[in-house]
């Protein structure tokens, strides 16, 4: 196998800790516990993807089908390591997870973004543009609700779009 080409695949349990390390290296993402990433790599594996490059986890996207809304994918975190940035990898991770069986009914994507995360705004605006879908945003969690020492999280809603893109 050509290990110089990133492989996009579902996570497995042994990816949990490497995912934790990747997120740690990708500010401004909030770092969750290793245990959380182990759960995502197992219980939520159908709605998460990793990018493996040269034998290492270099990209990760987590999410789930929103409870009570089978047409909505909630994207929790997306991270691409320095070595793969600016090459369309985050977008490939989004397209890959949405192409999976678990997302067959998905027509809307939701996520939250802090107001100053320009890379994230760029990523989701480009996704909405290419899927010819509307992008709306409003405050989801205020700074106070997040403990006061955190930017507000803006809820970004994109859709409707067709699953195939
Ligand atoms: C955000 C992040 C995942 C983007 O990864 P990436 O693989 O470099 O992104 P892509 O190459 O797939 O870019 C997709 C689109 O986003 C845009 N984009 C990516 N990085 C950007 C930046 N720093 N500023 C503005 N736009 C950006 C690209 O221009 C592209 O749009 P285009 O189709 O109009 O050219 C990566 O920078 C990262 O891991 N950042 C730290 C963690 C984070 O903030 N995650 C998002 C919050 S959940």
TrEMBL record:
<comment type="similarity">
    <text>Belongs to the acetyltransferase family. EctA subfamily.</text>
</comment>
<dbReference type="GO" id="GO:0019491">
    <property type="term" value="P:ectoine biosynthetic process"/>
</dbReference>
<dbReference type="InterPro" id="IPR016181">
    <property type="entry name" value="Acyl_CoA_acyltransferase"/>
</dbReference>
<comment type="pathway">
    <text>Amine and polyamine biosynthesis; ectoine biosynthesis; L-ectoine from L-aspartate 4-semialdehyde: step 2/3.</text>
</comment>
<dbReference type="InterPro" id="IPR000182">
    <property type="entry name" value="GNAT_dom"/>
</dbReference>
<feature type="domain" description="N-acetyltransferase">
    <location>
        <begin position="6"/>
        <end position="145"/>
    </location>
</feature>
<keyword id="KW-0808">Transferase</keyword>
<dbReference type="Pfam" id="PF00583">
    <property type="entry name" value="Acetyltransf_1"/>
</dbReference>
<keyword id="KW-0012">Acyltransferase</keyword>
<dbReference type="GO" id="GO:0033816">
    <property type="term" value="F:diaminobutyrate acetyltransferase activity"/>
</dbReference>
<dbReference type="InterPro" id="IPR012772">
    <property type="entry name" value="Ectoine_EctA"/>
</dbReference>
<protein>
    <recommendedName>
        <fullName>L-2,4-diaminobutyric acid acetyltransferase</fullName>
        <ecNumber>2.3.1.178</ecNumber>
    </recommendedName>
</protein>
């Amino acid at each position: 196998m050509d290990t110089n080409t990133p492989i996009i695949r579902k996570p497995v349990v042994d990816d949990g800790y490497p995912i934790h390390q990747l997120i740690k290296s990708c500010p401004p993402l909030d770092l969750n516990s290793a245990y959380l990433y182990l759960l995502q790599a197992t219980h939520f594996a159908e709605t998460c993807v990793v990018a493996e490059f040269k034998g290492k986890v270099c990209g990760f996207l987590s999410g789930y089908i929103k409870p009570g809304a089978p047409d909505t994918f909630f994207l929790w975190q997306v991270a691409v390591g320095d070595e793969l940035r600016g090459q369309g990898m985050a977008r490939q991770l989004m397209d890959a997870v949405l192409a999976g069986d678990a997302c067959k009914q998905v027509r809307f994507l939701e996520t939250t973004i802090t107001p100053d995360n320009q890379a994230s705004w760029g990523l989701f605006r480009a996704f909405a543009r290419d899927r010819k879908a509307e992008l709306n945003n409003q405050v989801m969690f205020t700074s106070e609700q997040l403990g006061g020492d955190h930017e507000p999280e803006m809820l970004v809603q994109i859709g409707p779009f067709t699953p195939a893109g």
